[in-house]
Structures are given as C-alpha cells and as structure tokens.
Design a protein that fits this description.
Elements (H helix, E strand, L loop, with lengths): L2 E6 L2 H13 L5 E5 L17 E5 L7 H9 L3 E6 L12 E5 L7 H8 L5 H10 L3 H8 L6 H16 L13 H9 L4 H7 L1 H18 L5 E2 L3 E5 L4 H17 L4 E7 L5 E6 L8 H5 L5 E3 L3 E7 L4 H11 L3
Parallel strand pairs: 1-2, 1-3, 3-4, 4-5, 7-8
Antiparallel strand pairs: 6-7, 8-9, 9-11, 10-11
Helix pairs in contact: 1-3, 1-4, 1-7, 3-4, 4-5, 4-6, 6-8, 6-9, 9-10
This protein binds manganese (II) ion (MN).
Manganese (II) ion binds next to loops.
Length: about 325
C-alpha cells in the first residue's frame, strides 16, 4: 500500500497536512504547488490498494483526476472548503466538504482529530484570512494577544508564499516549505526561530508596502479594483494585498489584478461579508475562475476582457 498526500501549497493546505501527519506519520509521496496549481490529482499515479489524501483543493477542478483514480481502485480521503459541485458517491471516497465559508481545511482536519494540534489549525485559518474562525479555534488555548498575533503572522507569511504565477515567483517552493513546517511540533517555536519564516515575513511586509501605495483602477459604489504592475513582487503579494483590503473594508468587494507572463491577468477577488453573491459564484462566471465564499480568483483573465471584467465587477455587488 502506498500513500499519496495531495495538498494546496498555501498555509491552510500545509497546516492541514501537518496536523494529519503529526497524528499519523506515513512515508507518503507529496504532490503540491502554488495557489494557482490546483489541478493536481491528474498527475497522481495511485491505484488499487493505495490511499490518497487530498487537502484544500477544489473537487470541481479535480473531478476528472479524482474519478480516474477511484476507477483504478484507490481509496481517497478528501477534505476541502472550495466550491466542489456535485460530490461523487463512490464506496472508496470519503469526502468532508464544507462550503459554508466559515471553516477552512485546517479546521476540518482539527475537527477530524478532535483538536489535537489546535495551534496549527489556528495558523491555517489565519492564513486563509478567516479571522473569526481562527479566533474561535484559539479560544480554548487562552493565548494572550502577543501569542495569538504570532500565529496570525505565521499564517499570513506561509500564505503569502503560495502566490505567484509560477514556482519561480515564490520565495520557497511549496513542497520545501511543507518540509520545513513538518520539522516543528510547535508553531510558536517555528515563528520564533525559523529563518525561512523571518525571510517570508520581511518580504511580505516590503511587498505589501509597495502594493498599499497603489490607487484603485476602478472605484464604484460597493467595490474597488486594483491593477498592480507586471512584476514578481506584485504576483507574490496579490492575495496578501486582497486580504488586507478585505479586512480594512469588509463591507466592500475587492479585486486585485496582476499581469502574468504570457499575457492576461491573475485576479484575486474578495466578496463583502454577509449574504449575497459569493466570491466563487462571481469568479466561476469566467473560465479558470473558482474558489470559496469570501475569497476566490481567476487564474488567467484574457486581456481582451479586462474592461468588461472591471464593469462586471463594479456591478456585481452594487447595493
Ligand atoms: Mn484553504
């Protein structure tokens, strides 16, 4: 029997897998990528007798790969909170999917493990910008503001590393970042003494300062859209900047567009809190769009559709 772990290379995906493997160590083959590399299951050669664990990547975007490995006889455990579409019913598939927008994959794993590695679930939730979920998870830990802040910063830094249009844009390849994380039992220790974390935090802050100097390219009643310059730093900070904007003005919608090599734009969308159109509903109107309730994205927006996108985004959440 072989084990395959397939996970999103962001904070939530990494912290979800780390909790699982702290509880149940296995010599597994790892498959991951940057945020936009989510169609991962097609390349996993699992078959009869193998166990595949899939964390924090959209089932809808991996449906073909999932069905193929189930047909080959693999057993699949699937935990996620992105838009899934219809979940196939198959005796070899265990799926825990939560699309309410309130929980992240690290929180689903925390529930599965009855809170055994709770501080890592808090890191994953902060990484996904789910402030309320993170604070709720942290309550039983009775952390002071400084310690809670350390987990928030660690989540933000791990998450920041996952953005970029290719592995060359990011500071640490996601697989390597997972391996670094996997050496730490205690996230506070990692936050304090891991050089990679220190580097990610300082680069994140520098990139964010550059982004915060930009003005919206389109402002409307309930929505602001930003267009960052064509540079690796702006592709890295795209999601971090969108999260910052959403925290500063949660009642508004935000879009951050960044040119990508080869043409077009990568887009991060944050929906206003509360009822109404979700970010993933909006993004799925475009080819290569998808995500979750409050945070979603478009992997590549065709340049010819830029003006129309800005109009449609301005209209989407008009009061
Ligand atoms: Mn997630």
């Amino acid at each position: 029997m072989r084990y395959f772990d397939v996970f999103n290379g962001d904070a939530d995906g990494i912290c979800a897998l780390h909790q699982l493997r702290l509880a149940d160590p296995a010599d597994s083959q790892l498959f991951t990528g940057i945020k936009r590399d989510i169609e991962l299951l097609g390349s996993v050669p699992a078959g009869a007798g193998d166990v595949v664990t899939v964390l924090d990547i959209s089932l809808d975007r991996n449906r073909a790969g999932l069905m193929a490995m189930l047909e080959r006889g693999a057993h699949v455990r699937y935990f996620d909170h992105h838009y899934a579409g219809p979940v196939p019913s198959h005796p070899e598939l265990e799926a825990v999917i939560d699309e309410t927008g309130a929980l992240c994959t690290s929180a689903l794993i925390d529930r599965h493990l009855r809170g055994r590695f709770r501080p890592w679930a808090v890191v994953g939730a902060f990484g996904d910008n789910l402030e309320q979920a993170a604070v709720d998870l942290a309550r039983v830990l009775e952390l002071d503001e400084g310690r809670l802040g350390a987990l928030r910063e660690l989540g933000a830094s791990l998450n920041y590393n996952a953005y970029g249009s290719n592995v060359g844009d990011v500071l640490v390849p996601p697989l390597e970042l997972y391996r670094i994380v996997s050496h730490y039992q205690d996230p506070f220790e990692m936050a304090e003494r891991e050089p990679a974390v220190e580097r990610l935090a300082s680069e994140r802050k520098a990139d964010l300062l550059r982004a915060l100097a930009s003005r919206p390219v389109r402002e409307s009643e309930g929505a602001d859209a930003y267009l960052l310059p064509d540079a690796p730093w702006s592709r890295r900070v795209n999601g971090t900047f969108a999260n910052r904007l959403a925290r500063a003005a949660p009642e508004r919608a935000h879009a951050v567009l960044t040119p990508v090599p080869g043409g077009g734009f990568s887009v991060s969308v944050r929906a206003p809190r509360g009822e109404g159109l979700s970010a993933s509903e909006f993004c799925r109107r475009y080819p290569t769009g998808g995500g979750r309730t409050l945070a979603a994205g478009i992997d590549r927006l065709d340049p010819s559709r830029l003006e129309r996108f800005l109009d449609e985004f301005a209209e989407a959440w008009r009061a």
